[in-house]
């Protein structure tokens, strides 16, 4: 079996939603101290819907594929849906990641939550802390 699924290869070589949103409503930046990967996710929000999302990831193939997939999964979705996005769901959507690379998908989940938290904080929106816990 190949180490990486076709979907991972596809999202790594042709990542979706790469870039930066200049007037983002929320920005989430997370990192993994062990491997040094950094992931940044930008969101635009209108009426509680994530209307646009972009990412920049300095990291391994799995981290890039995970961010690409995560952005596709939350784009156009209500915030509540985006907060339900688990790293497991990202891994499943990618048809799996090698076990040592599962932590890369955790970054994607954390980055989405961090972006929503930033949006909530900037707009003085109250939220239950557990909602945004990793
Ligand atoms: Fe080097 Fe993830 S381990 S980029
Ligand atoms: Fe660290 Fe991929 S190796 S996020």
From TrEMBL:
SUPFAM superfamilies: SufE/NifU
Gene3D superfamilies per record: 3.90.1010.10
InterPro entries registered for this protein in UniProt: NIF_FeS_clus_asmbl_NifU-like, NIF_FeS_clus_asmbl_NifU_N
A Pfam family of this chain: NifU_N
Span of domain NIF system FeS cluster assembly NifU N-terminal: 4-123
CDD domains (alphabetical): IscU_like
Organism domain of life: Bacteria
Protein name as catalogued: Fe-S cluster assembly scaffold protein NifU
Organism field: Ruminococcoides intestinihominis
